Amino acid sequence: MISTARVVVFFSAVALGIVSLLTGLVLYFWPRGPRSGWLVIMGLNKSGWSDLHVYSSILALLAIAVHLILNWKSIKLYVKCLKEI
Q1: What is the pLDDT of residues 9-22, one digit of tens each?
Q2: Domain count of the chain?
């Protein structure tokens, strides 16, 4: 039976990973130049997008770490089965 905590942690990690990916793409394609800092996209300037990217990435890494801890027994079983193949 899948516990609610595992489901919440999994979907949190996926959602935060997607936010990190999208903010990374916004920052990658952000115009460069002296006046590019004045540009505002969806209510955030470049500094705001950068902060959102950093925080969502850190939270995604924490959620992935918790996910690995919660599923450690399963991971060990998968590795054991792979060694037998």
Answers
A1: 999 999 999 999 99
A2: 1
